[in-house]
Design brief:
By secondary structure, the chain is mostly helical. It has one domain. Helices cover 20% and strands 0% of the residues. The chain contains two helices and no strands. The chain has helices spanning 48-60, 77-81. The protein is globular, with a radius of gyration of 12 Å. The two termini are 24 Å apart. Bound molecules: zinc ion (ZN). Zinc ion is lined by residues 11, 13-14, 16, 34, 36-37, 39.
Length: 89
């Protein structure tokens, strides 16, 4: 398995990055459920086509936070989307 030398902490779907590792340095999913878009890393987000489809549904549904209590008062959707790793945009 190739080493990518970097972990992924930003959600591939919505870009939320709270520092928790979603994919390790080998690209192995850690099955962490995103508290924003509610996607679980490793479930349905392993191809860019799937990622875009899930993101489309999420945004189309109003880009809701699964756990609204965790939504920052000054939350900025476009700023968060900017966290999405280039290869998953
Ligand atoms: Zn997410």
């Amino acid at each position: 398995m190739p080493t990518r030398n970097k972990t992924e902490t930003a959600c591939r779907i919505c870009g939320l990055d709270d520092g928790e590792v979603l994919f390790d340095e080998y690209g192995v999913p850690q099955y962490v459920i995103c508290e924003c878009c509610h996607n679980e890393s490793g479930i349905g987000d392993d191809t860019v086509t799937q990622v875009r489809e899930l993101r489309g549904y999420w945004v189309g549904d109003g880009a809701q936070w699964h756990d609204p209590k965790r939504k920052p008062a000054d939350w900025d959707l476009l700023k968060q989307i900017g966290n999405i790793p280039t290869e998953w945009r």
